[in-house]
Amino acid sequence: MTTLSGRSFFDLSPNALSETLARARALGQHTLDLTESNPTRAGISYDESSILRAMASPESLRYEPAPFGLPSARAAVARALSARGRAVDAARVVLTASTSEAYAFLFKLLLDPGDEVLVPRPSYPLFDHLARLESVRPVPYRLAYDGAWHVDFPSVFAAISPRTRAVVVVHPNNPTGSRLTRDELDRLAALGLPIVSDEVFAPYSLRDGGGHAVSALDAKDAELVFSLGGLSKAAALPQMKLAWLAVAGEQKLVDAALARLEVIADAFLSVGTPVQHAAAALLASRGTAESAIVHRIRANLAHLGSAVAGSPVSLLNVEAGWYAILRLPRTRSEEGWAIAFVEQDGVLVHPGHFFDFEDEAFAVVSLLTPEDTLKEGARRIVERVALG
Description:
Mean pLDDT: 95
Structural class: alpha/beta
Oligomer: single chain
CATH topology of the largest domain: Aspartate Aminotransferase, domain 2
Helix content: 25-40%
C-alpha cells in the first residue's frame, strides 16, 4: 500500500481569516491589503535597464557546475557583505537558491533526525515547516517586549537539552523589527552552539543614522556562525532566486563545515547560471530599490505613528525591516479584529498569532504597502477600534 511521509503532512485547511477574505473577494469587495511584502508588486522603483542588461550575458549559455557557486558570484557577494563593515572571504561564501534552502542545507549539516534547534518567537512562521521537512525539532525561545525587544535568556537556557545542536537568530527579526545587541550575540555565542543568523533585512534601518548593525559574523568567541542573506531583500529581487550563507568561527570548524557543505550543495546544484553571472551587476544596481524601500518604510512608519496617536491602538517600537506591529485592545481576539477589519472595513492585516505571539491582541502590517493604501487602511483600523 502506498503511503506518504509524515514529515510532508501539513494541515492545509483554511483558517477563519482566509475564508473571510475569500468570501469578500467572491462578492467583489475591494480590500486594502496591508500585508503586501512582495516588492515587485508594491510599486518600488528599480534600475530596470541595469537589471535586464545583467541577465543577458552570453556566458549564461554555458553550464559550469560549482557546488558553492561560480567564483565571480561568490566574490560579488563577499564584496557586498564586506561593504557593511566586516571583511568577508569569498572562500567562505556558499550560494543557494533561497534562504529557505540555506536553512535546509544547514539543518542537514548540523542536526541528525530528532535533534533540536532553538528558534525565536515571535518570528516568521517558517521554521516549523523547514525543521519538520528535515526531521528535526524546532524549540522556541522568547523575544520579550518591555518598550523594546530583547532576547529572554532564561527561556533560552530552559530550552536547551542534550539534543540541542544549533540556535537560529533573525537579525533584524521579522516581524518585530528588532536587532540583536552585541552583548546578546556574545551571550548566544557563549552557549557553544552554532549560530544560524538570518540577516536578510540588515540594509533596512527605520531610524536615521542607523548605520551598519552588528552582524552575527562579529560575535565574540563564536565557535561556528552562518550569516544568511539574498537578493530577495538585498536587491528586492525575490524572483532571481539567489541567496547565500557566509561562514565564520574557529578555523578547524569552519573548514570541516565547508567540506561537508560542499558535498551537500553538490547534490543539488540548485542556483541558476544566469543569475550567478548577473550577481555583481544586480548587487551593484540595488541602490535604486533600496533607497525607494527605505523611503517607503520610514514614511509608512511615520504615517502609522500619526494615525494611532491618541487612540486605543498603539505602535510597538521597531528598529529595522519591512514590518510594524499594532497593539489592539483585548476587547476582541486578534483573529476577531482581523476578520472585522476585512468584513466591515475592507482592510487585511496579519493577526499576531501567525507569527507566534505569546499573547493578544496584535496586528502585523507591511511597511512596504503603497503609502496611500497604508494611510487609508490605518485610518479605518483606528476608527473600527474606536467603535469597539
